[in-house]
Amino acid sequence: MKGLVGRIFGEASSTEFNFVVFDPKDVKRTDYVKVWNDSDGWVVAQVIDIVATTDLKETDVLKGRNAEKETYIAKAYVIGKRDEKGLLRIPKTPLVPGENVFKVDKDLIVDVLGLKREGVYLGLIEDTDIRVNLDVNSLVQKHCCILAKTGSGKSYTAGVIIEELIERGVPMFIIDPHGEYASLREPNDNPDEIDRMGFYGVSPRGYGNRIRIYVPPNSPFMDKADGVLKLDGLNLTPEEIIELTGITNSTQQALLYQAIKNLKGRDYTIEDIISEVEALKHNARFGLLGHLEKILDSNLFERDATPIEILLQKERAVVLDMRGSPPEHQDLIVSRVCSMLFELRKREEVPPGMIVIEEAHNFIPERGFGRTVSTQILRTIASEGRKFGLGLLVISQRPARVDKNVVSQCNTQIILRITNPNDLTAIKKGVEGLTAETVDEIRRLPPGTALVVSPELEKPVIVNIRVRKSKHGGASVSVVSDKKERRGKEKKDKKNKKEKKEKNKKERKDKTMVGKSEKKGFFRKMFG
């Protein structure tokens, strides 16, 4: 029979069963299968494990492998089937031992898993050509997180989502500590990835002027930016100043609180705070003044501050490239900008959109892993942002160090390979619906493959992330080139050297011929 891959044996229930695999080449772990149930019709299940067993005795093993006696047993969990109302149901009666198990057809998988025909195109279900599309509104308004260990493809996956949202005109503000997202302007020129684009049904594309780059003052990359982000220095709080300057002396902190208390009731600048500190009669004021002068030298705060509303524009993604900025400056920038964007959004002075936070563990750390001034506003956006149309895309390589309340507020979770036990424990606590088998699967995921959990999907699915259309700016830099690359470079250098030598030889020859010709003409002229 077409698509037949095995037969149920042993005990079977309405939620799980084992089946004998006829040909191990036909069934792999995570594959989808279907079984007939008399009361429900075709029921879909997923293979979660396969083991090989044999009835060989010890004496037979010594003689060598006997393939005829090997048996492959697969374990499958039941997903269910759609009823007449379109609801996913688990069978009320157990599946029957002896029933045939078949490969499931594409349309049935799409129907049972609740896959959308359109939306944010993330990639293909592993080992299939079935697209996984996520609902745009749900992804943006109900928040999303991407969690993975270094090198597993988290920034690449974020780039795929950003491309999809740019094409749909979703405004985005991207917090970019490492300068990875400016490359969205350029089309993908990686030959290996271009070769794979046909399989995913995409083609190279850069997003040009739809990507705007801003940098903080004193950035070493100002020449590559579209603008400099200058903050309004009015009414800095003591906590923000302490974060900026790293003041640890308790006496200096007390003087700072006193100076700002004296300014209460009116708008004040950093210069006003300095004037108040100078008027205080305490020797510790001199050290505090030194810290405050550093804030002035940073040029972060200007009277002609950048209008925050330009950071969330229709049809555009604004990237804040913070490479080269001290961590304490980055933290304060994120805190101030996100606070103002949230207030503007509540007043509907900026369009609905999304804030993308790369290296989120640095800005919203879990309790016990540090304290930042940006934590509170990002927690607020995570819990209240959906009411006002402001979403978060949280990206981190250390899930255990990201505020668990923020992660739990993300309805869509995209989890790539993670092996750290603390990170896996944090994911189990923060993501609903993960089984022990699913967590084990996360350990084994290859780079570029993700477990996707979403309210739009009936069950978590494993997805091969599609190839990016734009250039990826987060690829690792090779410290030492491989032997093949070195040989290629040496061969090219040798060829260039040879060509240059031949060119110089020809130029000298031509020069000599010209010289002889001129000399001969001179003598003809002189002596006829």
Give short descriptive properties of this protein.
528 residues; alpha/beta; Rossmann fold; 3 domains; six-stranded antiparallel barrel; 15 helices; 19 strands
Quickly describe the structure.
The protein is α/β, with parallel strands linked by helices and about 525 residues long. The chain has helices spanning about 60-65, 105-115, 135-140, 155-165, 190-200, 240-245, 250-260, 270-280, 285-295, 325-345, 375-390, 405-410, 420-430, 435-445, 485-525; strands at about 5-10, 15-20, 30-35, 40-55, 70-80, 90, 100-105, 120-125, 130-135, 145, 170-175, 210-215, 225-230, 315-320, 355, 390-395, 410-415, 450-455, 460-465. The protein is built from 15 helices and 19 strands.
General description of the model:
This protein has 528 residues and is α/β, with parallel strands linked by helices. The strands form two sheets. A twelve-stranded mixed β-sheet has the order 9-8-19-18-17-10-16-15-11-14-12-13. The chain has a six-stranded antiparallel beta barrel with strand order 1-2-5-4-3-7. The chain is globular and about 90 Å long. The protein starts with a strand and ends with a helix.
